[in-house]
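Memo to structure team: turn this sequence into structure tokens by end of day. - J.P.
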Amino acid sequence: MFKLFGKHQNTILKTIKHWLLENSRVLITASTSAGIVILLRSLGLLQTWEWALYDNFFRLRPTESFDSRIVIVGIDEADLQKYGHPINDQLLTELLYKLNSLQPRAIGLDIYRDLPQEPGYKNLVTALENIPNIIGIEKIGIDNNLGIKAPTILEQKQQVGFNNLIIDADGIIRRSFLYMFPENDKFLESFPLKLALIYLKAEGIEPEKANKSNDLQLGPAVFHRLKINDGAYIRADAGGYQFLVNPRKQESFHIVTMNDLLSGNISPKLFKDKIIIIGYTAISVKDLHLNSYSTRLFSSPQKISGVELHASFLSHILSSALDGRANIKVLPEPLEWLLIIVFSGIGANLSWKLLLPKKSILITLFIGISITGISYVSLIYGGWWLPVIPTIFSLSGSAAMIMFHLAHLREEWQKSTEFLQSVINAIPDPIFVKDKYHRRIVLNEAYGKFIGCSIDNLLIKTDYELFPPNEANIFWQQDELVFQTSQEQENEEYFTDAQGITHIIATKRTLHQDAAGNLFLVGVIRDITERKKMEENLKEAAARLELDNAQLKQLGDSLHHQAHHDPLTGLPNRKQFYESLSQAIEWANLNEKMVGLLFLDLNGFKAVNDTLGHAIGDLLLKEVAQRLQGCLRGSDTVSRLGGDEFTVILPGIPGKLGASRVAEKIRHTINQPFKLEENTLSVGTSIGVSLYPLDSEDIDQLINHADTGMYEDKKKYKK
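Reply from structure team:
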């Protein structure tokens, strides 16, 4: 495999180099556009646009089902006018007992109670102590903010959740806390999470760590902890355990007023086994916030109360854990960068291939709409927040850069064409100029006269429309060779003009580049038909002389073969053996290799001659020669020295062990029975081995060593 790669390495490298040169403009443009977009995004300049599109996706979401697990007891303006603000502890106590009697699963008190609001403070403390599943609220102090404490009795019962909100730079809340870690050995739960855990515990769901991470898992839902550069966020404050909220519309929850509840105007079934959140909905309290559903295209933003915001957070947690509603996820930052780079490449490549600005704009617009649509579906139905704005910016930016570049090229092209036309018309030889798509863009007047057509007619036709297919194919191949190699080429071709007359032409092709980087192939044609006819006549005269020379050469080759080869077996003879051995030793010296030499003698050959005759003996020698050639490498040389003596030259043999293995292979091959006419014969062989330069560096001594080894082996046979 590695040898194959090495063999084609130069071809592969040349192909890659050519592709890089061919697509350099697209690569540079795509890289520049992607780099600019990544820089803008890293500086946070696209953050607001991404947030706005993210919010619009939610506003365009189909209406979701009503979350009946949550009921809001809202204290509106009418309640404040009737009961006063803030509502006193006695009234709050009455409200809590009333709710507890309706058997809710949990009660969330989204009202700060760090100080008594007489009358009724003692009664409120008693109520908070006796009602089991009530969760109070506090605000954790951060930096110089001291915060707001929850009632002491609820802190002692560990039934408090914090109310800190995270507001983005544009004033909109898109994320929330699950936990905060004010001290290393302590963590606090948020108000919505505290209520959710009470509800989920009754459903058999307890909080646990997700596999291979420290993220919170509730049932099948994993709440991914926000990082500083997740989604559109750039260097966000990701302290605590934050998650991206999948918000609900305001109309997704039951909301009843405090007055209706205290007056008994509400069905008790509405509250049984639900989570009740009590909080202010009155505008005058100014506990109002913006979420993804708040902004409007043609009207002022519609704020929602804090209690509704907590209900939305709570609904997200419950719906994810119980209903499989999607949590918001983001791609890793390197993958988002890769997405930007890919679409930057798509925009540049499409504009470069299409060439036409209108078509490029339409297709870029279509791709941009498709990206937006896919991202909408991914967010709403899969929970994936994809980088739409940066992707579209990189796509359209690279496309626009290529379109501007193409406009510049067209202008330079026109100037170059006019200049070329004025120059080549003064040249008497036929000249053509083609672009890299093999289209003729400039022809001189001599070219039109030579082919027999007007220049205007020639410019709008291809080679395949003007010439026979075989000629057109050759023209295209020769042109492409120049474009591929950038090397000047000159070759002879056949050329059929408009009258059907075929000419033999010599065409010189060269590649040129103008200031704007446009490549032109310039071809200059010379008619060599008459010259070729004269050459053919001279060749015919010379052919007769060459025929006689060929016959003499053939005779010489035959005599040389006879002088160097055995007439019976066709193997190299003694003279050729010495030449071959000398060449093998010379090669071994240059390459620091060894040469093996085997001397072979047939055992029992004389008996075959004496009993069956020389004809059978000759057949046996031929068969032995064939077997020797068949069991050796193509680089090995088998020779017949005379009689039944043979030699084998083994160039590049690794050592004595390798030579011995070859000898045993030959011995096994010769020992097999021979079928000659009607006779079946068995003969053996004696083999002597020598190795250059181990046994000797002198050629005669090397031969004597092998010959002596053969006779030693022969003695063993006779015994």
